[in-house]
Every structure is written in structure tokens, then in C-alpha cells.
């Protein structure tokens, strides 16, 4: 067992750049996480500086049963409160510490949908908020660090900035938002694409795709996403590629997270071949999320709907899909949305989506709104405004964790102020208050999107055919509209 010489190892790997150390440490706390040889147990020490918390909380509801709160010599005790949701330090003094252990096997068995941890071969993937108790009070001025003590030959894959003393710095959202990190024997490979840097870790499970095939897949996806604004939305991203036993599709699932820094988790089908990866939609979808405004979870109509629209449009702009394929995919998706849900308004459906599993309804109704808004912007403001410009406006307002989360309608109001007319809010409000899936037949006719026996045929004699072609045309320069 050893403390990783982070600065040497990670500098050689090119994984992170050292963040400057503070000359004088401010109020905050420091974690040390010590893993045993088999990654079966983690001992956590939490020490406080110029700050004494009244209670500690855990970031994952299913993780409480994996914690061992047995009091250690020289450390304060922890008592779980009657509400079962928080913990009280007992005997904690200024400069003191609390210690607990986590049964990582129990953590991996816990939960069903949002599992707090899982094993991928010899590697461990987990939500850091499921392992680390945190003070209920955490302001932006708190200085918080994490140091890993790992078995020989293992390393962490985290999205957090590295300090000069070899620990990682956490912001106040690192344990509050959903996030994923990994510990194991993987390599972390640097990939430069679309003007950004990706630190890619392929986890320990069998897979057919080659190293170069995975690099090409991610590079092409990043290039497609850069078509939205002329650049990739963030400078650096951690990518965890997790092979899973499956035959189809090539990429099973993905998640984009911003907890502590941008990172992606992509579930790769174990049998997927290199040629099946390039142009698939999941990586493009998740990467597009990194450039979205931070939106409340209950408003997936905006966050997921607009990204669903762009997963098709951006692949078309990048040449990964033909124009006909873009509109076929959109039409097929709208059909799935129309067949899902429909008994509740879109606003209500977004709030209860996980309970009723009406994902198609919410995602594709949101995508329909994005299409309608994009067309109307281009029609009213030729060569001045399109949805791309609003996406950039919203990202500047609430990108990453900047400014905190916003409601979709608040973002729409901000766009209308910039446009100096009421466009976005009326369109969005009408759709949010309706239980019917948007009727796109008239819009299709104007765009020259004709459906014959379920197959899309594009007509260039339609009134807005040139506008339709412009939506999927490659971008040659970053639009300056609204800047």
C-alpha cells in the first residue's frame, strides 16, 4: 500500500494540470480515502480546518447500509440521526477528524436504478457522494481536498483539478450533483480532438473495439459537437468507457456529468466493432450536454429535448449522417414520442418522467419544440439568429455550474429579451401546457419533408426547403449573432 506520487505519475500521463496551492489554507476540510488491496474496503478520514460541522450528509440514498461507523482511536465518533438521512459528529474538536469505513462490495450490491457503485473486472466505478460524507453546510468559500491512498499499480480517474501537494480540489457541487469516478488498473490516455482534451479510461472488461477505434469514435463525436458553436464546449473532459456484455446497439447508454468537473460515462457493447462506433448517437448526445445550460432535473423537456434534437442535426453537419437520414431519424423519434405518454401535459410529464418511464414522450416533444423554435428563428431573423445562437447564450449564462440551475422558461425569457420580441416563451408555454404531442404535419410540408410509407422524402420545391438545408449544413464559422 502506498500514497500515489500524483504529480509524477499524472504529469507523465498528462492527465491533469496542477492547480495553484493556496498560500494560506482557508476554512474547509480534507478527505483521505485509503483502499485495501482488493478494492473491497475503503477507510475514509475527514479532517476539518477552521470549521466544525453540526451534521454530515451522504449524497446517495442507497449507500447508508455500506457505512461502518465504528469509532477509531484519536477520532471523533459519528452517530446516525433518527431521520436516517444525516450524521452527527460526537466529540469533534477544532482541527479534529472523523473516520468511517465503506464496504465496497455492499456498496456495489446496493440500489437498483441509480446504483452507487459497480465493479468492472478489477476496476471499481462509484459515485463519490456515496462514499464521502460531507457537511450539510458547504459554501463556495470552503477549501476542500481529497487524497487517495491506493494499492500498487492502481490509479484514480477523476474530473477534479489537482493541487500542487498531490491532492484533488473539490468544488461545492462535486458531491452534491450526480458524478462518477473510477479506481483501478486502467490506463488513462490523452486524446486531443476538436480543440479540446479528453482523458480516456477504458475499464477492465472484454471488448472487441480497438484502442484506435475508440479514439476515432470519440474524436468524430467531439468534432460533430463542435459544429454547434465552432468549438467543443469545454476544454477538458474525463471519459470513462465501460464495456458491458451486449450485442446491440454499439453503445448501450451514456451519462454526462458536471459534478466537480465535466465527465462522461459511456457503456460500450462488448461485441461492438470499430466501424459500428463512428457516427452512433450516444456519444454525440452526451457530449452536447456539456455545452447545455444547467437546468433543473424536473425539466427534461428542455435539457434532454434540445440535446435530442441536436444529436441528429450535429451528426448531419459533421457528415456522419446524410440530410435524409437526419430527417428520417427525427421523424422516427417524433413517432416514438407520439406513442408514449400523452395523458399529462408536457410540463407534468417532465416532472414524473422517471416514475412513469415516459422518456420518449418528454425527449421527443422537447426535440419537436427545438425544431419549431429553430425554424421560426431562421425564418424571422435570416442570417442573424438560429437556435445555435440561443444555445450559446444560455451556455454563457448557466454553463457548467455557473450561476446555478435555471428553469427552462427563465432561459426562454432571457432569449426573448435578447431577441426583443416574444417568441420563445409563447412557443414553449403552449407546448408545456398541452397533453398532445406537437402536430408537425404543416411544418413538414413547408420544410419539404414528405413521408411516404414511413420513409422520409425531401422535396426542394417547398417554401422553406433552403432553410431546412441550412439546418444541417456544415458550419464554416462561429455565428456572432447576439454576442
Walk me through this protein's architecture.
The protein has helices at 6-13, 104-109, 128-131, 211-225, 274-277, 281-289, 300-317, 323-339, 346-351, 353-356, 359-380, 387-398, 408-419, 424-432, 441-447, 465-471; strands at 2-3, 18-19, 28-35, 41-49, 56-57, 67-68, 77-80, 86-90, 97-103, 117-120, 123-126, 134-135, 143-150, 155-157, 162-163, 168-170, 181-184, 188-193, 196-202, 236-244, 251-257, 263-269, 449-452, 455-458. It is α+β, with helices and mostly antiparallel strands. The chain has 3 domains: 2-183, Immunoglobulin-like (Sandwich); 188-289, Neutral Protease, domain 2; 300-471, no CATH class. A hairpin with a 2-residue loop joins β23 and β24 (455-458). Residues 2-23 and 477-483 have low confidence and may be disordered.
Instruction: Detail the poorly predicted runs.
Output: 2-23, 477-483
Q: What is the CATH architecture term of the largest domain?
A: Sandwich
Give the overall form.
Answer: globular
Strand content bin = 15-25%
Q: Assign the structural class, choosing from mainly alpha, mainly beta, alpha/beta, alpha+beta, or little secondary structure.
A: alpha+beta
Cα(first) to Cα(last) distance is 53 Å
What does the largest sheet look like? Answer: 7 strands, mixed
Domain tally: 3
Reported by name, the CATH topology of the largest domain is Immunoglobulin-like
Relative helix content: 25-40%
Number of helices: 16
